[in-house]
Design goal:
This protein has 471 residues and is α+β, with helices and mostly antiparallel strands. 29% of the residues lie in helices and 17% in strands.
Length: 471
């Protein structure tokens, strides 16, 4: 069990050219490359949004240039004075001795490099340090820590820090993924990574989407998927086909096949009985084939109400007006693909959704039939309402307007205990995910705002004791 420590915000330095080339850096002083500077700026801006910061925070940085450059952006963003920042050799990178400047793959292929993680923990390169040495060094530093601290350091020493705070076994320490462009909050025996760019969602199972409406492709990277789960592109495609545009007159007429490709994280041979996940990040890509950018030429210098045009221009000083760029609802194709992977991890949970209201018109819940959802263009469970919605929406469209709707999602078979206390509640994460979908303006969970009209008895969870256990 790890000791109780003050909260630590760990930042790995931004990318260097040696990172790109896969070269071992260690004590060698390498500066950030262009992407590394961008990552450092993004992390600095992300840290400005951490509400817990107060004047008593400590700021510690490794003496190596790449870490000091990263801390420089943080100091600027947080308006720190030089005396507030401590340059501490205790958090410098592990030394890799004679291996510095050589490719990591060459070290891994060397007969002197131990094949087992537990042995690699204590392995010490010539004229260098072992992870065990680094772990002891970081423990001595932690024993001096008396206040919450932001520390900017490196990959290997960061593994030692995270493993100590989170109480990870030695065999897991050496292979911890150390991200650049993120920060990691270490508190209460837990390590939680935060994406500075806000293109990612999730914690243990994390999805990062990429691409724009009129770019060559879009997709996602799924990190945290367990190994040995059967997964094929056809299984993902089944869900993308439901979302695919151009299937009725009530959706965009853009003709995109939305064919998904699995580019990594899946392996197959004669022993696997089909493709299975490997535990590595899964990259999914969907080509854009029907971009009609000229259709948007007229709005190049105009800003559409109800869209993110003005917001993007104000925030970034540039915007992709072709279909909205990154703000386009086309980004949700990547979410659907990632969701198909997520379903494979929780096969005991059933998640379904349906349209229950369009404008002021609600479905008749006595007509609810899940079997109807896939047989009308509105994904509604009320066949009679579907007929009405066709005429209603045609009229709205002919008038040159549009109308809102309400979607109801149910999840059954969810086990108790998902989520985390306070700032990681399941309800909170679900609401955050839903609110990030284009045009969503409200999320209710359970009775939602209607619970204000319910008595405590009516609104309470239905719990009963059976055979001495609650259920």
């Amino acid at each position: 069990m790890s000791k109780q420590r003050p909260p630590i915000y760990f930042v790995r330095h931004g990318e260097t050219d040696w990172n790109v080339q896969g070269l071992i850096q260690g004590w060698t002083d390498i500066e950030l490359n262009r992407k590394g500077h961008d990552q450092a700026r993004a992390v600095a801006q992300a840290l400005t949004r951490v509400r817990e910061f107060h004047p008593d925070f400590g700021f510690v940085v490794s003496p190596l240039l790449r870490a000091r450059q990263t801390m420089g952006y943080i100091a600027e963003a947080l308006e720190l004075e030089p005396p507030q920042i401590s340059i501490d050799p205790a958090v410098t990178e592990l030394g890799f001795g004679v291996w510095e400047g050589k490719p990591f793959w060459e070290l891994k292929a060397s007969p002197i490099y131990p094949p087992h993680p537990e042995d690699r923990y204590s392995w010490r390169p010539e004229a260098g340090e072992s992870y065990e040495d680094g772990h002891a060094r970081i423990n001595r530093w932690l024993d001096t820590l008396d206040r919450p601290t932001v520390v900017v350091a490196h990959g290997a020493i960061g593994r030692c820090l995270i493993a100590e705070i989170a109480g990870l076994p030695r065999r897991d320490l050496v292979d911890l993924v150390m991200r650049q462009g993120f920060y990691c909050k270490l508190a209460d025996g837990k390590a939680e990574w935060f994406d500075a760019s806000h293109n990612s969602f999730g914690h243990l199972f994390r999805v990062t989407t990429f691409g724009e409406s009129h770019g060559p492709a879009l997709g996602c990277i799924v990190d945290g998927c367990p190994p040995n789960i059967p997964l094929t592109a056809d299984e993902i495609q089944a869900f993308l086909d439901k979302r695919r545009p151009g299937q009725s007159r009530f959706t965009t007429q853009r003709q995109e096949p939305d064919q998904v490709k699995i580019l990594s994280g899946v392996f197959e041979d004669d022993r696997t009985a089909g493709p299975v996940t490997t535990g590595a990040p899964i990259m999914l890509m969907i080509d854009n084939v029907d971009q009609r950018s000229k259709d948007y030429a007229e709005i190049r210098d105009k800003f559409r109400p109800g869209h993110a045009d003005l917001t993007y221009q104000a925030k970034y000083g540039v915007r992709d007006y072709r279909g909205g760029g990154r703000s386009s609802a086309r980004e949700t194709a990547a979410r659907v693909a990632a969701g198909a992977v997520a379903r494979k991890i929780i096969p005991g949970v059933t998640i379904r959704g349906a349209l229950v209201q369009m404008g002021p018109h609600k479905i008749d819940r006595t007509n609810w039939d899940w079997g109807q959802v896939d047989h009308n263009p509105f994904f509604t469970p009320d066949a009679k309402a579907a007929k009405f919605f066709e005429d209603y929406l045609d009229g709205v469209r002919k008038s040159g307007s549009s109308i809102g709707a309400v979607i109801e999602v149910t999840a059954s078979g969810v086990p108790s205990g998902w989520g985390a206390p306070l700032y990681g509640k399941l309800d909170q994460d679900l609401a955050s995910a839903m609110m990030s979908i284009n045009a969503v303006k409200g999320v209710e969970i359970g009775a939602g705002f209607a619970s204000a009209e319910l008595s405590g008895e009516d609104n309470a969870d239905e719990i009963r004791m059976r055979r001495g256990k609650p259920e």
